[in-house]
Amino acid sequence: MVFNSYEFILVFLPLAFLAFAMAYRIGGWNAAYTILGLVSLVFYAQLGIDLLGILVISIVANFVVGNLIIRTRETAATSKSLLAFGIVGNLIALGHFKYTNFLFDISNQFVGTDFSHASIILPIGISFYTFIQIGYLVDCYGGTVKSHSFFRYLTFASLFPCVTAGPLVLQKEIFGQMESQRAPLFDLSRISMGLTMFSIGLFKKVVLADSIAAYSNTVFNGVAGGQGLDAVTAWAGAMAYTFQLYFDFSGYSDMALGLGAIFGLMLPLNFNSPLKATSISDFWQRWHMTMTRFFTNYVFTPMSVSAMRNSIVSGHGPVRKFIGSGGWPIVLTMLVAGIWHGSGWVFVLFGLLHGFAIAINNAWRQFNMPQISKPMGWILTMLVVVSGLVIFRSPDVGTAGTILATMFGGNLLGYGLAEQTVQISLIEVAPLLLLFWAIVLLTPNSQEITSAQWYSTTEKPTSLSDWVKRFSWRPQPGWGAIVACVFVVSFVMIGTNSTFLYYQF
Question: Using H for helix, E for strand and C for coil, what is the string for 177-221?
């Protein structure tokens, strides 16, 4: 069951809110949030009872370790050992389910072993709920978490708008709200805003993302199957997947924010028009924002601070100091981020590409190189982004190499040529691509549209044009009619086999 399904919209969501409201009527917000945790488990159970068991074991284990860390904080060595135990345990579990077969492939390729792939299911959302809980353990060790009831923790760790594909929430964002919530349950402004965001996200997913998916799938699957392609088709397929993933993940992020608002919880913004970015660093401040925040806080910053201290003590020059504290840490961080998305060499290459691109971008600014104009910065950024997404989407390095080589003139060298070639209708896809570029570059995004009634832990947009401010969404009949039309159009176009792309990561 996914957000963009009739089962979710017509059955699960109404029943979940009914149970939530009844609990609120009986025991206030505390009871309501307890029910929300149980409802979240029911949601996840629809993906598989065995997967639910893995999630529950993870939640119980991290809750126990977190409480032990809190109780032993005054004994630094003990709490630090517990933190290490908790982090390693989470990573071993994640590694077993997600990376075992990839490690077998590496061993077979470089060591000469003959391991066969193990039959291991991949729990949906395991990367998300594992890292959410690792962040919780780190915060327990850092002294920013107090003891909570198990059911309060259960709601935080399993919250159904987040558990399958983010955002990566922080404990302080969720626990703080659950403890201080005093607003009425039936707040018309909040619930209307939530339904609006959900409807916008549903439209992005089923009307925009799914409409372009067939073209990207044809190109990537065709090349993976041995077909050739020309440069125009390669670029069309690459941009089609860029927009498919863009609207798919943007749609999910909007729907998650909307669902959080409906149930009285502000969630962090996870998507902010990344295709408007004029540098690769700007792109990662806009794309999967909570993932960027997590890896910045818990991976990059510790490495960078340690390296900076060593550079200062050793008296390194500015170039060596940058490489040690700002270069390699960002490359390694993005490598981890790439592997976090999935197992396979394509994710390694994806992470390294973005890591080196960010490092070069940061070095260019730090050493006062000639300033690049915003249009040129946007072009360079999009070349990296689209190329990276070709790698990200490809099932193997060979497919990615063929498509990229063809995009950048490889037909002249023999790349992309084969007896049978990929065929897509450029007459159909070209107008769609132009329309999508116009949408992402020229129109206000979801949070700008709803900025007047913004409901998120992320600060609301401030740099808005006068016309956006004038026509921003409000809980009024006119906007209600517009949103209803958006929802109805999206509802009737829901596909039977459409799921969110980030479910596989």
Answer: HHHHCCCCCCCHHHHHHHHHHHHHHHHHHHHHHHHHHHHHHHHHH
User: Is 455 within 8 Å of 188 (Cβ atoms)?
Assistant: no
First to last CA, the chain: 17
d(CA 86, CA 80): 10
Each residue's pLDDT tens digit, 79-89: 999 999 999 99
CA dihedral of 479, 480, 481, 485, whole degrees rounded to 10: 100
Cα separation, 254 vs 202, whole angstroms? 8
For the full predicted model, state whether its pTM sits above 0.90: yes
Region of 409 on the Ramachandran plot (φ > 0 left; ψ -120 to 50 alpha; else beta): left
* SS3 assignment, position 317: coil
What are the pLDDT digits (tens) for 381-399?
A: 999 999 999 999 999 999 9
Q: Do residues 73 and 181 make contact, with C-beta atoms less than 8 angstroms apart?
A: no
DSSP string, 348-362: HHHHHHHHHHHHHHH
